[in-house]
Queue: 4 jobs
Job 1
Amino acid sequence: MASDTFRVGKRAEKNLSKILDYYTDIDEKLANRFFQEIDKCFEYIKDYPYMFTKRYREIRVCFTKVFPYGIYYVIKVTPKRKTTTITVINILHTSRKVKYKE
């Protein structure tokens, strides 16, 4: 079941930008590989939004295969309009300690 709408929230965009800057400083090819990995995960989330179990209330996490990052997202279904919206709320390193907000 593919989603009708896929959004990347401001916090996720900001963190993605910081991560890309970090990897670009190390090696531009590494940054490109990271971006491709994130893009693959985004496509997978779009195509199979319910594949990942809920981790924190309504928040689901898709972990990248190569890099140590998790993509945190929520699914909102509007039954009246029969639409599904996926919102990526954050992209975080797996060893970071973070308090989650909804």
Note: The domain at 5-93 is CATH 3.30.2310.20 (YaeB-like fold).
Job 2
Amino acid sequence: LQDNLIFGIKGISAYLYHAGELGYRDGNLEKFLAKILYTTLTNVNFDADGLLQLALDMGKVNVETMRLLKKAHIGTYGEPAPTEVPTGTKKGKGIIVTGHSLKVLDEVLKQAQKEDINVYTHSELLPAHGYPKIKKYGNLAGNIGKAWYDQRKVFSEIPACIVGSSNCVLIPKDDYKDRFWTAGVTGLPGVKHIDGYDFSEVIEKAKTLPDLPEQIGDTVLTTGFSVSAVLSVKEKIKELVEAGKIKRIFVIGGCDSPAKRNEYFRRLAELLPKDTIVITLACGKFRFNDISFGDIEGVPRLIDVGQCNDTIVGIEIIEALMELFGVEDINQLPISFFLMWMEQKAVAVLWSLLYLGVRGIRIGPIIPAWVNEDILNALTTKFDLRLITEPDADLKEIL
């Protein structure tokens, strides 16, 4: 349980860092981090029930932190709107920005446009395309690759410079190490680091590299579903639910990993009936966001609300649906939650959902490292937390 708290505040710290990049801070949230560090690293609390309550408190603090980061993003870059994003390359020089930092992406775009250099997002920066003050840049060229773990292959194949803006960067292969830079808190052995936001060195290197080809991607992705965008069709959603044309909403997201077991989530998405809707977020979306889900009378069946921190967008949409349907318990809505499990942000998000009263969450592909048999029994009994089994079996139980 102490490890759980440490993992969770790692995720909260990442969100607070990115909010701080944009000038948004909250002293009360930072005080909570100090409290958890004192409680755990100095071994002053061995009370299991007390640590469990602290975990729920952590979930509450993470909700507040995600709201702060959402406020920072929208206050700086405008509210996202649904946006189609190409996945190919344009003729010309290129820079790829990976990670989570909209601030880093914004600065790279701003500086690179003066030199007619195209900029591509990778992984968790896909949702940046939905923000008005990001997509205004004519040199924002598309998204390359999928989840974080494909970067060593993708970055080797594409002769562009790369900027790693946050966690989820991997030790680079030698064939692209000389065109990789880290920024912010990130750092890699043998890779140049940029303090601040002057990316002139990256731009100069990009000028010396071969042009990327004009190449159409395999698919066009859609992202940028803000709270306002979804609630603009809330009456239609209510009408479709009451008419039995939308039977259930599935929230499928989280932090993906290269584990073969995570193929579960694509198979799950492929098996979903046509009268269901999927809300997705974080890099887990790349398991299935290339599938053509279509729509139900104009309501998209796949709703990508953003990065892992944009879980708050999904929460606010669900809270609005609770009000729309006149229910007080989130579990009275026809919604099922599936959370991919990999790193610390997923810990914080899980406890946020548990704090909000969500029950019956399915997690996978494996039991988190900090969960022993006693803790798993407690989570199962108290919160009805479940492990994924097989897609068809889990769907049969739900539907």
Note: The CA atoms of residues 152 and 172 lie 6 Å apart.
Job 3
Amino acid sequence: MIFVLGVIVSLSSSISIFAESKEKKQEYMDSHKEIIKSLKECEKVCDIHTEDITVDFLNQFIYANKIKIGLSENLIKYGDSKEVRNEAKKCIRNSLENISNAEPILDCIKNNLTKDKLKEEKYLKEYLEIYNEMIEEMENDCKEDIVDRVFLKNIICHGKFTVKMLDNIEKYNEDKGIVKLYKDSKKNQIKEIKKMEKLLDELE
């Protein structure tokens, strides 16, 4: 009788843990979908049609880092792996640093635009192609069952997009402040991607 009661208690506990885990995943995904929705609305909420590609890029760069902060905060709240949560905290610190480096440059040039509509059209065409590819891949990665894996796959995808975005502006820009910004950011981003890929392999 005691054995049977023990089994019942154990089963009840397992069911409860499973239910909590499922609820936690759902809450994470609900927040995650809102972040993906924000990504899709980049053109509406982010000024990327100023006709000055440097200003376009800085607005895109700041917005991308804010999205990354949102992804990381969501993981910290719902993720299971302490190591992944720690990396998410590093992502937030790096993104805040990127924003603090980009905003002063933007403030200096946004009221003195160097307009070139044709150049901007070419730049934005390439930018939006890689941006839409990123969103599609991130949505596909949401099919994963484990919160930590969803985050890692999404943050790797977002990181690779950021590298492509930085490569894209490099073709069109010669401003020394921007050159330093994208070179430093690209170097840090590549390191971060490698670390996240290692963590993802460990979760296999």
Note: The two ends are 40 Å apart (CA to CA).
Job 4
Amino acid sequence: MASSTGKIEIPKSSVTVDVSVINSTSWVGNVPHWFVFEPLYPGFERNGGPTFVFYIYHKPSNSRLLFDLGVRKNFRTHFSPHLMKGLDEIHMQISVEKDVSEILVEHGVQPGDIDSIIFSHHHFDHVGDTTKFPGTTRLVVGPGYKQRYLPGWPENPEAAETTSDTYEGRGTVEIEFAPNDHQVLTIGKFKAYDYFDDGSFYLLSTPGHTVGHLSALARTTSSSDDGGGSTFIFLGGDIVHSCMVFRPTEKYPLPDQISPAPNSAPFSNSTCPGDLFASMHRFRNEEDGERKSRTTPFCLVAGPDEDLAESQRSTDELANFDGEDNILTIFAHDGSLLDVLEYFPQKANEWKNKGWGPQGHWRFLEPLMQSKKEASHL
């Protein structure tokens, strides 16, 4: 499926939110490629990454949000036996050092300061440990979430990915994206919900991976800040699990020279030829392969998504957002950005001035580069 290439029109606003990326200390590794994408490329047989959480501060309302919550520290003893059995059967490796609540406290934010926790979806590596937060902290979820996934295990013995205590003693608000709601609009092809009703922070309906999957679009600078246009961070959740499924595109093609080289430190002056990767592209030997290999994502979405076709549609539209130079894409498990980003309590709002977008855009290709290097020594 081809991604759309139209300009993303986002309503103007002078209001922003402060965004910080929390490296939650969660790591989900040894994930087989067929959980993520197809076809397989050398170096991508097994995949892994961090679990990014986002801290959002809205100054006009003095509201603090979290987008996702990572893996809870006691996951091995707390989750359902059938979930743990399934993870063990595919040899997935999971580690976590701290609950997100601990990271907040270390930097002067108390769990009670958090007004809402937005779940991109119900999976164990995103819902964390809400019991560390008071009942005044509500949960925000996407359409159809409560009917499909609550009450969780063990209250529902068949449930796997989420637990009953996640929701007990607190409100869970479901965003319905109702067309008659004045806070609902369309951005690109995604239904959007203007969370603070001022254009600073939008929830996006990005279904496919799960029912009711949510992403978000945070305005990090406004046109009034420097006279230019607004900038945004696209908080992806699990809309994708690899850059391989949404890069390159016609809006952001694979260049003749990539700098920095994917296997070099970010912000270095290293370069490597783009054709090194284009030559390995699935379309390279097809008609018009030279162009397609530089303007079409390397892979399609694969794996146990609840609606794979819907997931691909969401991914295709993500590619359209990702092609804008004023939007930085960060999905939950993007390990290629680990040494590009700055982390909580540092703010990510100046990401564009700091060059995070171009510095991180092609780093996901490092395994391909490494496999090519190893093959040349055989």
Note: The chain has one domain: 18-247+300-350.
